[in-house]
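Provenance and format

Records in this collection were gathered into a single text stream. Each protein contributes a sequence line and a token line. The two records reproduced below are adjacent in the stream.
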Amino acid sequence: MVRGVFGLGLEWLEEWIEGESAKLSRGSSMEVALRLVIPLLLLILLVILSSGSPIQNQLTSKRLVEFYLGKIQRFNPVLKGIIEVNPDAMYQANKADSERKACSLSGLHGIPVLLKDNIGTKDKLNTTAGSLVLLGSVVPRDAGVVAKLRKAGAVVLGKASLSEWANFRSLNAPNGWSARDPCGSSSGSAISVAVNLVAVALGTETDGSILCLASNSVVGIKPTVGLTSRAKVIPILPRQDTIGPIGRTVSDAVYVLDAIAGFDYYDESTTDASKYIPRGGYNQFLKACGLKGKRLGMVRNPFFISGSGSGQVKAFEHHFQTLRQGCAVLIDHLEIANIDVILNATLTGEARTLLAEFKLSLNAYLKDLVVSPVRTLADVIFFNEKFSNLVRISAKGLFISLVFACSGRGSGAHSFYDYSTGIYGIIAGNDQGIWPRHLSGSPNHKWNWQ
């Protein structure tokens, strides 16, 4: 990534210069002069770093990781974008520097990357989906995308916070548990990138968790399902789950996509999708006219049917020219048939499918863990009830999928949720509403939680 390291180097230099200037007395002529020459100095350093001069390579992975760890220590207590820092991050950075001296380089060599905490890592980090119940659980191997990141030389900086269970625990929980909603369950990944606690991060999307965040000062790429491996990523709906990069520039996000895309033995969906990856990767299109031959449809209805003078619409239209400069052909005011139905999760059947398949896919994930206090969704729900004081469960904080937790294969029982009372139930037999905890197929009770 200038590949990433390059842009990161400038970030580091700018922070250093600002830090030095802050040491000067307020209002001194030296501080004023220093602040005036910062843009010029950065430009000169840019030329020096790219020229092969003796000062080149002075920015090491170790210094880069130290820089980010310092920023995390300063700002994360307020922002809470990072749930856990990798204790081996400095070791990985030093290893990358040693390999660089031996000219053994990979695509993301020594670049720190943050992972959403539903992406499994076989190391000292936890993989919890933001849930207390999975603290201490152990995955059998790295997630497919993590294995590819390591192969590309990346440093795993830590795990990003997220809406618990990727925003699938409750009907009305805010993304990131914050009144200032960053939009989408990959909230910690986006927050951390936006304020430069890390240059790039991985997020996941089932229904908008990357695309929605990309409207808030970051670049997000949501790959087609199967382009990146879903293996050992805590699932919601496998047919929609996908993993993609979040960065501060398009180029950084594209280089990360190149690193994580491709075939994975543990995810059958990658077999066909990997055949469509262009030879040489996607970064070859980061050039003038990189969009040549591409027809892009601009769908305004029903998204921008009112408030045409709003700042959001103006920003949207401003980028039309940027796309045209990239040699794309724009089809404006594109109308999509039955768009209202497509956007309605109930009418399309998406909502029912989500509820049913979440149980099945999560149970399969939990069953495969090397160490875990829970093995089924029902186990998780009973844990939350038992330790409600710790997980802060309320009537509005119950699992959306509670209605399916103990029923057959999850899709055969009719269910209901009463929004006025907050009551969940399953219709069984003579259409009598039954609490899930009273149904057969009770969870594993061989627990020893103290």
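Adjacent record:
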Amino acid sequence: MAADLVIEEGDLEVLRDRTSEASSGLRSVTVATAGIAMRSIGKDVVDDFVYTGSPGAAVHSVGTLGVNPEHTWVSAIPLHDEVQGMGPDSSFGRDPKELEGIGHLSGDASGGDGYNPDPNAGKYVNHSAYFYRAKPNEHNYSLEDIGKVIADTMERK
């Protein structure tokens, strides 16, 4: 699989420049870098691809990701994850939420242990909440939907 991965010359340098401008954190850069990698990866190498809290898709169309467009997904927490779509289209690519044909997963991580509902909390405090374990008797629907993608039981909405 790794042999099928080709990152175009200059892609990483662009990401380094944009990352220092955005100060968006390592995981977000990883998602944008993954989008770049997906442009060049061979067909049928990756089964599903999920964007979470991404500053950009690194592409302008799900059809250029190297994975079946029916198996591309995005989850976007609406509160305190302002990393999403923070870069202009010319740097990080389109906001994944706006990619035509992408499947939308729940962005509701409010039941996650560590999710911060305080309206005065920082702009990025829920940036990792997609992956928080659910509190007892609650749900992190974002994480549950990601699990359904992995288990191949997620239906398109």
